[in-house]
Amino acid sequence: MNKTELIEQVSNKTKLSKRDVGNIVNVIVKTIINTLKEGEKVSLVGFGTFQVIQRKARTGVNPQTGETIQVPAKKIPKFRAGKGLRKKEIKKKGAFEEMGKKMDELGQKMKAITQKRAGRISKEAKNWGEKLDKVGGKLKKVTQEGVEKLATQTKTVAQIKLRSQIRDIKKKREDKITRLGRVAYELDLYKKLDNKDLKEIGKEIAKLEKEIKIKEEEIQNLRK
After folding, report:
1. Angle CA(175)–CA(191)–CA(209) in degrees, nearest 5?
2. Where are the domains of the chain?
3. Mean pLDDT, to the nearest integer, of 152-160?
4. Per-residue pLDDT tens for 165-221?
5. C or N: which end of the chain has fewer Cβ atoms within 10 Å?
6. What is the C-alpha to C-alpha distance for residues 78 and 34, in angstroms, rounded to an integer?
């Protein structure tokens, strides 16, 4: 049932002209929309409640690049069926489908109003929203086991990278020890000599050893 058919049926039952019924329907719809724009709700006892809800901001994923992006919060219209409507037995075949169409038409109008108030949304932005919703649905299916596996893989990659860095630092340290002299290094003899170059090499070795220790501690933390 569309708007024209609704007006016709109401006109037949109330004996009012279609013009008068059309004006009444338009006023009802406009009143509901304006009330929602003001942040208030419209409750029709036995039928349902129209209201605007706040959809929280969430983290999404760019389906083309895989990068994490932030989906901003937004307000959307919502209809909640009343107790009487939920329990009422509708025997006429296809009545639920017709009612659903009417609610969908009204919902689309209210959605257009709220979107206009928030600002014009381009066609590209709408497409992105649909894609993000699909990606979000897929992400919800990811199990805790999969998340833990990914975390383990990430830690493994980090450990490999740290070990590679440690090897490079140790190589630099060995080169400087060779320049300084292993015996002089092991016995700290360079500290007793009045040679600025040797002392400077000794300081560089000590700095490299500190870096090695830090990297090894990071590996230990990743194993926990």
Report:
1. 45
2. 3-139, 144-223
3. 78
4. 888 888 887 887 777 676 566 666 556 656 677 677 778 878 888 888 888 888 888
5. C
6. 14
Among the listed residues 90, 109, 89, 87, the one whose alpha carbon sits nearest the alpha carbon of residue 98: 90
Homologous superfamily in CATH for domain 3-139: IHF-like DNA-binding proteins (4.10.520.10)
